[in-house]
Design brief:
It is built from six helices and five strands. By secondary structure, the chain is α+β, with helices and mostly antiparallel strands. It has one domain: NADH Oxidase, CATH 3.40.109. Strands 1, 2, 3, 4 and 5 form a five-stranded antiparallel beta sheet that branches. Helix 1 crosses helix 4, helix 2 crosses helix 4 and helix 3 packs antiparallel against helix 6. The protein is globular, with a radius of gyration of 16 Å.
């Protein structure tokens, strides 16, 4: 896999929800997660934790409990090769921003490495559900932590087509 430059990754980044039935190399997943650790945190608190799940049974179990929580029995997290859960303490007032910043760093890294990724937001609504918490416990996510998203990754069947962006930038001089 060749790495692209930052601006190319920003422009090419898009949601990939169709993956090949192939694993992602562990070193590649670690590189992606490491990019997340370099994102900003308020006052450099660094309370986030990054959990990479590649076990297909655990991914299916996580998808199932999320699906139960959102009343979608068929929910499958798009059959990814890996899921990255970013968690932080439930007392962190900046949890959403900090998890979002880390997620964006990882998404750009994944794009640069040719890995497909999608951001799923259902964890935000079900992170405190008992059956979800039981799975998070299996994954050794601290009991005082919340997850607000699940990042699903895989070798893409096709890369995302970047849609045209509206002109939203205005200079005031």
């Amino acid at each position: 896999m060749s790495e692209m430059n930052l601006f190319e990754a920003i422009e090419r980044r898009g949601s990939i929800r169709s993956f090949k039935d192939e694993p992602i190399d562990k070193d590649v997943l670690l590189k992606i997660a490491k990019a997340g650790t370099y994102s900003a945190t308020a006052r450099n608190n660094q309370t986030r934790r990054f959990t990479i799940v590649t076990n297909p049974d655990l991914i299916r179990e996580l998808a199932h409990v999320i699906g139960v929580g959102i009343d979608r029995a068929d929910y499958d997290l798009y059959h990814p090769a890996a899921v990255i859960l970013v968690s932080t303490t439930k007392y962190n007032k900046n949890a959403g921003v900090e998890i979002g910043l880390a997620s964006q760093n990882m998404w750009l890294a994944a794009t640069a490495l040719g890995i497909g990724m999608a951001w799923t937001n259902q964890m935000r609504d079900v992170t405190n559900y008992k059956n979800v918490r039981q799975v998070l416990d299996k994954l050794d996510i601290p009991s005082d932590h919340i997850c607000l998203n699940a990042l699903v990754l895989g070798i893409p069947n096709t890369m995302a087509e970047t849609k045209a962006r509206e002109e939203v930038i205005k200079f005031v001089e």
